[in-house]
Design a protein that fits this description.
The protein is built from 3 helices and 13 strands; from the N terminus they run H-E-E-E-E-E-E-E-E-E-H-H-E-E-E-E. With 218 residues, it is mainly beta. Strands 1, 2, 3, 4, 5, 6, 7, 8, 9, 10, 11, 12 and 13 form a 13-stranded mixed beta sheet that branches. The N and C termini lie far apart (47 Å).
Length: 218
Amino acid sequence: MKKLPIALLVPLFALAALTGCGGEDYAEHISDVRSDCFLAETEDFSLTVSCISREVPYAADGVACTRSDLIEIVLKPAADRESENASYSVTLHGTPAVSGELSYRSVKGDYFLSQGVTAFPEGSISLTVVENGTAHEITATSVRTQEMLTPEEAVDFAVRAEQELIGRMTGKRFAGEFQVRLVKRGRAYYYVGIIGKEESAALLLDAETGEVLARRVR
């Protein structure tokens, strides 16, 4: 077998380490991921149920720690029904079992609930929303489709798009963390944040193709 000169082998090994072929599993460096969200809307409010896996306690410090699974519920009243004196509670039927009273967030003007879970729902979920004593039975539907990338695949696309940045964050191992969030704004996107000790970047990817649609660096 013909041997390659040492001068050629060095950059090849460096490229392998950069792309993950050298054993780097970038999924291990995900500290915050929203893998799915369920949407519902009535004349009175809109509701988002998010499936979150996040390190606890969370800190955007470039180091990914052990994650916990959470369901986060955000209820946004219609403009003519906004009031910090209103009360809302929610019950998710089926698995996982989530229920509780939502807290008002004055900065965002919405109501919020977060609870730890051991499993995430799929497809659609049935909920009971109690607004000031009046119950509403609603169904929230997942934004995910079979054509969408997984969060781990979205990270792979981000790594390929930001090879120079990833290279600067890599010594013996990659020294950074990823935030990955599935979002729906008409169409579906992945927000991928790459956070290091001194540098960071934020990418908006097409959720199906992985194409980079927007980029911001700091």
